[in-house]
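[09:14] KT: can someone run the structure on this one? pasting the chain below
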Amino acid sequence: MRGLFSLLFFFALALAMAVFHCPCLHAYPLDSNDQGGLRPHAKALWQAIKHYPHGEFETKQDAQGIHVKCRLLLKGLAGQKDEDHAFEDLDIFLNLQADGSFSPGAEDFSWTIKAAWPRGQVLFFPWFFDLSQIKGSLKARGRVRNGSLHIDDLLIYGPFTIKAGGVHLPLQGKSASSDYLQRLLGSNWQMSADIQRAYNLFVRDAFSDSHPIVKEFRPEGSAQVRGQGDKIFLTLAGQLLYRSKKFIDGLKAVVCYPLKKDRCEKGYVSWQDIYLRPLLPKGVFRSPEEIGISGKKLPVTLCHDRGSFGPLSLDLGNGTISFEEASFLFSHGTLMLRGIKIKDLKPHKLFREVPLEIVVEGNLPEARFNGDRLVFKGSLNVEVAGGMVQIKNIWIEPYAAILRWGADIYFKHINLKAVTENTSFGLVTGAVEGWVKGLVMSGSQPEAFDLLVKTDEKASRSKKISIKAIENLSILGGGGGSVSFLGQLFKEFSYSKIGISCRLKNDVFELHGLYRKGDREYLVKRGFFGGVNVINMNSKGKISFRDMLDRLKRIGKSSQSKVEVR
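[09:31] RB: done, structure tokens below
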């Protein structure tokens, strides 16, 4: 009898007991005189059946042995492991038949079982399953012999169809749920599923609140998974849509997962066409049709504790972005990218709103997650306005509600004429150098930075500044922004040095000039023989960043200013 009740208990509560502790059965008193030698769970189940109002239990004995029939409706099961793992209102229908010998120590009987779960809720964070929406049933047959449960045939209907056979599970001794799972996965079984239904169940419903973009994707097609020996094989075929428009056509995946810890298996993902245009924002790119993925096949490697794929190259028409490998550590949930390279990237030819000629080259050997932040090693080098910009310590938080990123930026030999001549700020000539440290951006809004800009003494360029630029610099320094009547007679002035530092932290903005004379602080310093000074009128004060944005909005308007012309 011990094997029979172990069998019934295994099928009735395998899902619940593998993850949770179910107190409903342990509430029944045990009568050891009736079922001597039974294991504790089997005893509890015997008493549950004996006293349970929604069940039938029949036994009959003849020359062939004992015949047992059991019908049960387990209603309203509930349990909780912790706040992230629980189930409630779970109903399970069971119909079991067993025939054979049930003598302790010499159990040898055949069995068939049917089960269904029409109702209940299961939480296994971040997944929540309403079983009334994904009803399922189970049919199985096999034997109990020599202390082992043999499952000859198993068929499960539900969100997926699962067929299995040749499974052997020990009933003697103690085995962890992970041992049972390893044995089940290592048996001969196969599962088929509709990709869209699986995606909705395990991805869209679970992650759409934290990552709304998953709602925009819709996979179509079918997948087959099968276990054989110490490997699990996945074959997938279909297509992927984004906002109801075709994104990947002719999608196919053939991969293999090894159950042994020292093994890795190779596979691939392939496609006929990838249409990136549906993913690209409208009106941003000059020629979105030129952007595509190089190649039509992506190598994939799966190991027991990690998965990886690559290399992959994105052809932008005016430059490429590629990486050698992306890997994911299953135990830590950690994504890592290796060998990221940017070659001959020309943003001014890609994006409509980029006014300057820019060329980007980069070598980022590694990127890995530190918490929610993807941190990059290496740097990007940018050629712009006759100078060089180096971007280091790059990071990005892709899962934030508003995309956050940051970096440290160093620049030199930047030609001010190229930067200012086609803007509303006003023309400035000469060259500058400096840095932006600790830059943090939330969307297009800065959260923090430490900026320094000063004249590049190594660049031999004439130093002139227009009236309009003088007025706008004066506004930034807290002045009104107008030049005196005498100054209005000239279109531009010479200067000796530009020196500006500013800082934003906790929504408090500070601006300073690098050159001082007495209690005056100069943003622009004139030469010995003449020119213009622009004075910082708020050298000792701090203002909110909102006030600074208001100053920027006033650029181009005149009132009064603290500008000295000589």
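[09:33] KT: thanks! The longest helix spans residues 2-19.
[09:34] RB: yep, looked fine to me
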